[in-house]
Amino acid sequence: MDTMVSDDNLSSSLQTTLAVGGALALVAAAVIHRHKDKLSSFLVKDFAIEEMNQDTDWQRLTISAQAQGCSEARVAASLGSRPLLTTGKSNTDDRLYTTFYEGFQIGKDIAAKRGDGKCLGYRVDRESAYQWVSYEEADQIGTEIGSGLIQLGENNGQNTFIGIYAVNSVEWMTTALACHFHSMVYVPLYDTLGEPAIIHIINQTLLKTVFVDKPENVLALLKLANQVSTLKRIVLTKKLPSDKDLEIRNKAKEVGIEIMTYNQLRELGQSKPAVHHPPTPDDIFEICYTSGTTGLPKGAILTHKNA
User: Fold this and answer.
1) Which of 104, 114, 153, 238 could form a disulfide with 69 if both were Cys (CB 3.0 to 4.6 A apart)?
2) What is the count of structural domains for the chain?
3) Cα(223)–Cα(208) distance, rounded to whole angstroms?
4) How does pLDDT run along the chain (307 residues), one tens digit per residue?
């Protein structure tokens, strides 16, 4: 009897929880739809579809201008049989974009018209105020980095993969922009992957150039040099501590890996700017590898259309 009462109570509680949860979800969906012009991204579950305006043009979803051109400028809609969408429309001038490259250019134009050039925000520590890189500055840096990569022999197009082994930063984003500008594919690396996974990813994507921020990660890559034969150079996105600089440069010389700084690459690009080679919606922009909990990591292929 006690067991039956307990089960009944559990069933009743579960039904109540599901009912409340479903109601909240529908309310949230309605709010999202009503204010979608102010949101940079949203996800709508199948059970909320009927509550939404069926006349919505899902190919012309609107996102905020401030988000355009950055990684947050993604409109992700899980809508049953509807496709995953990234097409967007500016709420300022009605121009559509179908790639991150187009989104960034529209964002830059809007920022210029509004007089608000803010694109990438950063701060030195949690206590300091945010500083901003403008769209014009981000465009210039991305163009210089992309031009520098081409000067180094990295061809524009889908057969070129660029590694980024760094935490989120202005340098991370402007490196991604540089890849967008020339239809290259960037491949993020991160600390928790471990040596076997790093070796696997570099060899599978034939990485020649990897952007790195931490000295310990630079040393880790140099240690693996004889197992990653395609790796030719490491670009330092941050200044090395004085006690590590000489060690790293000596080790790099020993294993035949070129070390250059972010600013050196920018200067190289300044000397011979390259015309942009914009991507198409079906072009790959990133291969994001899993953590490899069931073996070696697998690469998830992201295109401008399905990101």
Assistant:
1) 104
2) 2
3) 16
4) 444 444 454 444 444 433 444 444 444 444 434 443 333 333 322 323 333 334 433 333 333 333 333 333 333 332 233 333 334 555 566 678 899 999 999 999 988 888 878 899 998 888 889 999 999 999 999 999 999 999 999 999 999 999 999 999 999 999 999 999 999 999 999 988 889 999 999 999 999 999 999 999 999 999 999 999 999 999 999 999 998 999 999 999 999 999 999 999 999 999 999 999 999 999 999 999 987 667 889 999 999 988 6
Judgement on whether residues 46 and 130 belong to the same structural domain of the protein: no
Picking from 209, 106, 227, 114, the residue whose alpha carbon sits closest to that of residue 166 is: 209
CA distance 270 to 25: 51
Q: Phi/psi of residue 171, each to 5°?
A: -65, -40
Same domain, 240 and 291: yes
Q: Is residue 11 part of a domain?
A: no
Q: At which of 109, 144, 161 does a domain end?
A: 109
Q: What does pTM read for this prediction? A: 0.71
Q: From CA 157, how far away is CA 4, in angstroms rounded? A: 66
- Residue 115: how many other CB atoms lie within 10 Å: 6
Q: Are residues 243 and 137 in the same domain?
A: yes
Two structure tokens written together for 140: 């210039």
Give the position of tokens 């905020």.
Answer: 64
User: What is the span of the domain harbouring residue 48?
Assistant: 23-109
* Chain centre distance of CA 187: 10
**Residues in the chain, overall count:** 307
